[in-house]
Amino acid sequence: MSIEFLHTMVRVKDLDDSIAFYKLLGLVERRRMENEGGRFTLVFLSPPDRQDGTADVELTYNWDGDDGLPSDSRHFGHLAYRVDDIYATCQHLMDNGVTINRPPRDGHMAFVRSPDNISIELLQKGDAKPKQEPWASMENTGHW
Q: How far apart are the first and last CA of the chain?
């Protein structure tokens, strides 16, 4: 028996805000499906080098709203992405108004949250980078 990862689905309250957030991470919209009967939109995003449908994030937007969003979403867990430069990625996100909830103090791992409170783990590709300010002494903000 074999198994292949296809995608992770997260419900979103504001489709445009959520797409903008995931694009800041470098994801690209691959396909979109509007369902008139079900009154929802699905948007699939993935890293630029993953066009085969693996590693997709499926954003599900219910046209009539969802009173449960945004919630804490800690029951969900998190999405994880490997990045080439953890410090540059976190700086790019901060420069665009994203709170770094768990800074990359160790040069290896950081956590942020999407506009819908989905926890996103960022991991440094390869070995951890040498500790660097302002990250090394930055405190956590909120939770992840």
A: 35
Which ranges in 26-112 belong to alpha helices (H)? 86-95
Residue (of 52, 46, 42) closest to 10 by Cα position: 42
For residue 81, pLDDT over 90 is answered with no
Q: Over the stretch 14-30, which tens digit does the pLDDT of each residue have?
A: 999 999 999 999 999 99
Tokens of 32: 């979109």
Hey, what are 69's tokens? Answer: 């969003």
Which pair of tokens denotes residue 50? 């993953």
Alpha helices in the chain (DSSP H): 15-24, 86-95
Q: Which two tokens stand for residue 88?
A: 């540059």
Q: Which of 29, 36, 58, 121 is catalytic?
A: 121
* Active-site annotation holds for 121: yes
Structure letter (DSSP) for residue 135: G
Residues 81, 121: Cα–Cα separation, whole Å:
6
